[in-house]
Structures are given as structure tokens and as C-alpha cells.
Amino acid sequence: MSTEPKLNAIPRDALKNIKPYEPGKPQEELKRELGIGKSIKLASNENPLGPSRKAASAIRKAIKRLNRYPDPNCFKLKKALSNRLKVREDSILISNGSDEIIVLMLRAFVNEGDEVIVGFPTFLIFEIQSIAQGARVIKVPLRDFRYDVCGMLSSITPKTRVIFLANPDNPTGTYVNKYELDNFIKSVPENIIVYLDEAYFEFAQAEDFPDSLGYLKERSNIIITRTFSKIYGLAGLRVGYGISSPEVIDCLNKVREPFNVNSLAQAGAFAALKDKRYVERTRQLIREEKQFLYEEFNSLALKYIPSATNFILVDTGFDGVLIFKELLKQGVIIRDMKPYKLDTFIRVTVGTKQENKKFIRVFKEVLNKLRSS
Ligand SMILES: Cc1ncc(COP(=O)(O)O)c(C=O)c1O
Fold first, then answer.
1. What would the pLDDT profile of 275-312 be if each residue is shown by its tens digit?
2. 45 C-beta closer than 6 A to ligand 1
3. CATH 3.40.640.10 location in the chain
4. What CATH architecture is 53-274?
5. Which atom of ligand 1 is nearest to the CA of 238?
């Protein structure tokens, strides 16, 4: 019998307080663990259409140059984004998924013992990475599933360095509107970074959804992040970007790895950005299918939170972990909301018509069984 060598190296104290993030269950894992080969995944807010053909073809072409390091400055992609968004190229940083910018920003702006404000529940990576950086995380509970921006403002102390806001938010799907965000941005002292995570902003269609790029004209302390993982359908490639003042981008560049975005990712994202039809098709699918799911939840008398994104938070009235496990047995992967302390809730990503119908069929069976027992 072999014994593992004992670890004598000492991890940083901050790690004691970290519970690793649990991503949506991969379909391959379900196959390995339960032998279920045909499953549907509605657990990670991915695009159900498969990648855009244009992106796939650009990636195939880029394979020929895989012996070379990627462009460390992502010149082509940055230029395309600069034209699209009408912001300066030196106001943009391309990243290995938008998640990377959370880490870069914390590394650049937060010292041990500084305070960081987050909503709760919200995207858990804000909290996990802040703890890893040694920050003290101040959690401001949501109110009626929406950010309590006033509560966040009144939590500011001289030690506050960063305020995180996901807009629209995950896992609730709600958003901070233009009026609320305008007032919030004006009220935050300019020595504090306001981190606006807009991973789902392309799905947000409401008229009062804020145009956050406008804030960059007046403030240098705002970082906006977006991603190619959601509406652009490239979650597997890992490409995101941040937009801020050139001074902030300069700081982030100091702490990033030189080749953080690989060459296939750069080529795929560049092509995806131009594939407007794919984006429009996605938007339409999500709009229609979200309506289908709302109607089904209504007919089941379930409370759900109207969503500005491609996922829906639903209160099942039963233990969400149990629902997750029962659905899993039938090849449907969703998320329970226990890590977010919403024990009776599940979060379901809007899939294709076929996927949503299967989810509803299996979900009804599970609910009916629980309701009649
Ligand atoms: C709010 C939010 N921000 C960021 C991300 C991560 O995006 P990326 O794939 O660009 O790292 C996610 C992914 O689910 C998210 O929900």
C-alpha cells in the first residue's frame, strides 16, 4: 500500500476560508458517474446553439499557426472591440474568460485586510477571489432578489477598495436599472473601484437597462467586464474583456500573464464578434424559450424571478439538492442553489426548444412525485 507524502509546505492563511467554487456538472462526468450518455446541460448559462460556424471556421484556420505564441496584445480583437464599442484601444484588456479580470483587478488594487463589498447572493467568484487576495468581504443581502445599492453605499468605510456588481446578476437574473446605477456611480468615492460584471448584458433588453460605457467618460474608477462565453457561444475557448480608464487598464496589464489569451481564442472571438446573425438568433431563442418556461412554471404554480438573462431562478418549494439529484438521474443537469443559501431554489439555463421540453417533462414528474408523497 502506498502512502501519499505529507504536505510540509504551508498554504496562505486566507485559503482556510475558501470553499472552492462548484461549477455546473459536466456531461462527461455524468456519463462516468451514472453511465448516462445522453444528457442535457442547463447548468452553466451557456449558449445552447453550439458555436457560431464562422467562429469554428476561423479557429480551424488558426490551428496552422499553433507552433507560434499568440499575440500578447490581442491586437486584432482589441481593435475590433474598440471600433464596435467606440472606446480607445488602451481602455480595453482582453482576458482568459472575464473571470480572469476579477483576479487581475484584485491583485492590482487590493491589499491584505482591505474591504470589498459584494451583494449576497451573487456570483460567488467575487467572494472567493477576494478572500484569496486576503480581503475582508462585506456581504450586503439582496432585497427582494435585487441588489440593495443603498445598502452597499452605506457599507462603504475608509478601508473599502472595491464594490462588485453583476448586472444583470447571477443567480437571480435581475438588474440594477439606469436610474439606480446613475445615482450609485455618482455616490461612490472615486478612490474605490466599481466592478461592473456584464457577462449577460447582451440579453438585457429593457429600456431602463443602463448604458454603462457612458460612465467611463466621467469616471476613471469603473471597470466593465463582458464575455464571449454567453451570447457569443464560446465558453470553452475562455475569452472575455474589460473596459476601463487607460490608467486602470495599465495596472491590470502589469499583473497579467503575457500570453493570457491563446491564439485559437483570439481568432474565434474575432469571428464571433462579426457574426451578428448568430447573436440575433440566440437572442430570439432565449426570448421565446424563456416565455415558454415562464408559462410552464406558472401552470405549476411555482414562483420564479423574471430574468434579464438566459437563465431563470425558480423556487421549487422542496429541497433544491433533492430536485437536482432526481433530475440528474434522468439526464437533466441544472443547478441547486444551496451554495447561495437559497435552499428550495434551482437555477435553470434556457436551452433549445427540445431541451426545455425535456426539462419540463422530467421536472413535472419529479415535482408531482414529491407533491403527492
Ligand atoms: C456573473 C458572471 N460573471 C462572469 C462569469 C464568467 O464568465 P467567463 O466565462 O467570461 O469567465 C459568469 C459565468 O457564469 C457569470 O455568471
1. 999 999 999 999 999 999 999 999 999 999 999 999 99
2. yes
3. 53-274
4. 3-Layer(aba) Sandwich (3.40)
5. 9
C-alpha of residue 372 to centroid of ligand 1, in Å: 38
Asked if 300 contacts 71 with a C-beta cutoff of 8 angstroms, the reply is no
Report field, pTM of the whole predicted structure over 0.85: yes
Superfamily for domain range 23-50+277-372:
Aspartate Aminotransferase, domain 1 (3.90.1150.10)
Q: What is the pLDDT of residue 37?
A: 83
Asked if residue 97 has its Cβ within 6 Å of ligand 1, the reply is yes
Of 159, 157, 177, nearest to 169 by C-alpha is: 177
How far is 337 from 159, CA to CA, in rounded Å? 31
Chain position carrying cell 445552447: 48
Q: How many helices (H) and strands (E) does the chain have?
A: 12, 13
Average pLDDT over residues 236-254: 98
Q: β-strands 311-315, 345-349: how paired?
A: antiparallel
345-349/335-336 β-pairing:
antiparallel
Name the residue of 229, 234, 261 to mutate for ligand 1: max ligand atoms within 8 A of Cβ: 229
Query: 122, 347 in Cβ contact below 8 A?
Result: no
Ligand 1 centroid to Cα of residue 199, in Å, is 6
